[in-house]
Amino acid sequence: MNAPLQLPVEPLIAEEATIRILDQTRLPETAHYITVTTVEAMWEAIHSLRIRGAPAIGIAAAYGLVVAAGTSTASSRSALLADLQRAGDYLKSARPTAVNLAWAVDRVLQHVEASFEPDIPALKRRVRAAADAILAEDRAAGRAIGEHGATLLRDGAVLTHCNAGGLATSGYGTALAPIYVAHQRGVQLHVYADETRPLLQGARITAWELQRAGVPVTVIADNMAATVLARGDVQAVIVGADRVAANGDAANKIGTFPLALVAHALGVPFYVALPTSTIDLSTATGADIPIEERAPHELTHFNERRIVPEGVPVFNPAFDVTPARYITAFITERGLIYPSFDTGLADAVAATTEKNS
Ligand code: MRU
Predict the structure, then answer these.
(1) Which of 106, 108, 282, 334 has the lowest tally of Cβ within 10 angstroms?
(2) Model pLDDT, residue 6
(3) Ligand 1, pocket-test mutation among 24, 25, 52, most atoms within 8 A of CB
C-alpha cells in the first residue's frame, strides 16, 4: 500500500535569478524563506545554521558560488576563476566538519576550470550547471538511500538523532529517507526523535518534518535514549553523518557517539545513512576529522535566558566521532555497506565517481 507522503519543504530553492533559503533557526514556529544575494549572506546562513545538514550546506555553498559568479565584474577567464576561488575558500570556512561543503565547492570550481571557454557568460553558466547537478544528484541519492534502507525496516519503532531529513538535504534526506520510503509502502513506523541539545534540531526540525509527512513521532530528551532503547521496542537507530573517514569512523551531531554505545550495549542495530559525497577517503580515521566548536552562548543561554553562572566556562563541540566498530552498516545510494568498511566505502565512492564522469 502506498500512503500519501508530503515531503518536507525544500531547504533551498534555486530559481532563475533568485536563491532562497528556508531559515531553519525559526522552525517550528515559522517556515520563512530569505533571499540570498551576496556570498557573505550565504556564508552567514551556513555558519548560523539557517541552512544546515551536511548535504544541504554543500548545496548552499555551490549556489553561493552561483551568487559569486553573478556578482563578479571580472572581464577575463582568469579574473573570474580568481573571484570564484576566493569565494569558494571563504564559503568553506563557514563550517569545518561536514566534508560536503568543501566537496561541493571543489566540484563546482573543477567544472568551471575544465572549460577553456573565454566567454564570461558561458563560464558563469557552467557554475550554475554544476550547482544544479549537485542538487539533482543529492535528490536522487536520498531516494536511493531510502529504497536501500527501507529493506531493513518492519512495523515498529526507530530512533534518530539531530535532523538528517529532507531539510538537511534536497529531498528525502538520509537517516529519514528509509523511514519515508517504508512509510509510503505501508510499514507502520513510529519514530523517536532525540531533541538534540544544544540547538534542538531533533525537536524543532525532525519532529516538524515528520509530522508534516504524516509519520508518527515522539520527541525525547537526549538523556532518555537509553531508557527508550532498553524497553526493547526500537528495531534500529538510524542517524546521518557529516564526514565518514576511510576506515568507517563517522562524525555526526554531538550525542551520536553515546547513542551508538548504548545501542551496542543493548544489541540494537545502529545504521549511518549518507550519500557517497559524505565519504572522505582522504581522511584516514575519525581522529583526523576537524570538529567544529561553536559559541559558548549556545550552552550558557536557553531562549536568551542565562542558565550557566557568569564566568563558568563551557565546552561546546558540535560533532562527535563514532568509531566504526559500533556501526552495524552504512546505508548509501550505492547500497548497504557492512564491515569491514574500508573496501565497501572506497568501492561506493569509485562507483559514484565513475557514474558522474
Ligand atoms: O549542525 P547541523 O544541524 O548541521 O548537524 C547536522 C547533522 O549532524 C546531521 O546528522 C548530518 O549533517 C547529516 S544530514 C543528512
Answers:
(1) 282
(2) 63
(3) 52
